[in-house]
From TrEMBL:
Key words of the record: Transferase
Polar residues composition bias: residue spans: 1-11
Glycosyltransferase 2-like domain: residues covered: 29-165
Top-level taxon of the source organism: Bacteria
PANTHER family: RHAMNOSYLTRANSFERASE WBBL
Record's keyword annotation contains Transferase: yes
GO molecular function, one term: transferase activity
Name of the protein this chain belongs to: Glycosyltransferase family 2 protein
Coiled-coil portions: none
Region spans: Disordered: 1-20
UniProt keyword Ribosomal protein, yes or no: no
């Protein structure tokens, strides 16, 4: 049986309801698509094949993709998976918020289209959250397709961190120590551990807490919204952790990491960094954690 989800003037959605699996009340997955049809389909395929997430708990939000991938996704997932088409692109965080409002499960997984679980181990995160009521956010350990770590748990930025990360200095001693500290590269990976923030590429958050802290800040169009969310979760008295036992493959094609070549990604990152500094402050230096 097919039923329409609540619609607003700037979004169109199609939802198909079927019997829920065991994880149905525990986790909704929100994927924001923007010109990434192939990646999104691959991500959804992995989730469904691994069998830990029911199709009706997957919410694909298309951010008004100009390449028509939103309409194509609507046709591809004519039943089961929820596809929501937005009539304007208001940014990544806004897309996540739309998807989160459509679901009802106790936890939300914010997942990039180019990212998917290495194997069926999402239940480990849900068990961990259930057993640790003071943990509000858990990040998966992001790895490259070759298995190398992306170091997706990090310390909050300082002005010096930003300079080092965006220049050749990150490979020059002693600044390389600062970069290593920021990426928490030396931290043991044998169990879940507390961090300042985790990347929103594969981020689990309690729904009640997500709503309590105001969801994603839509003032950020792209970048830093995950850092901002983690900062607000910390402020609410909850812990943010990385769970190394749960690995997600992140097959990203990054533009913002190019040294000295100013791109649109750099511009968006800089704008978001200024907003974060206004919201939370940005120290010149920070204590080095090796």
């Amino acid at each position: 049986m097919t039923a329409s989800a609540p619609q607003s003037t700037n979004e169109q959605s199609r939802r198909t309801h079927s019997s829920k699996k065991e994880t149905g009340d525990l986790l909704d997955v929100v994927i924001v698509n923007y010109n990434t049809y192939d990646d999104t389909c691959k991500c959804v395929q992995h989730l469904l094949e691994q069998g830990e997430v029911s199709p009706e708990n997957i919410y694909v939000v298309d951010n008004c993709s100009p390449d028509g991938s939103g309409e194509l996704l609507m046709k591809t997932y004519s039943s089961g998976v929820n596809v929501i088409l937005l009539q304007e692109n208001r940014g990544f965080g806004a897309g996540v918020n739309v998807g989160s409002r459509a679901g009802r499960a106790a936890n939300i997984l914010i997942l990039n289209p180019d990212c998917y679980p290495e194997k069926a181990n999402i239940h480990l995160v849900l068990d961990h959250i259930n057993q640790n009521p003071d943990v509000g956010i858990v990040g998966a350990e992001l790895v490259n397709p070759d298995g190398s770590l992306q170091y997706s748990a990090r310390t909050f930025y300082s002005c010096l961190d930003v300079l080092v990360r965006r220049s050749f200095l990150k490979n020059v001693f002693p600044f390389s120590l600062l970069n290593r500290s920021h990426l928490m590269q030396a931290h043991p990976r044998n169990s879940a551990f507390d961090v300042d923030w985790v990347m929103g590429t594969g981020l689990f958050v309690r729904r009640k807490l997500f709503c309590q802290v105001g969801k994603m800040d839509e003032g950020y169009f792209l970048y830093m919204d995950d850092v901002d969310l983690c900062a607000r979760v910390h402020r609410a008295g909850f812990r943010v952790q990385l769970m190394p036992a749960v690995k997600f493959i992140h097959d990203h094609r990054r533009q913002s990491g190019q040294i000295w070549k100013w791109t649109r990604a750099h511009s968006l990152h800089f704008q978001s960094l200024k907003l974060f500094a206004k919201r939370h402050g940005l120290p010149v230096f920070r204590r080095l954690k090796l």
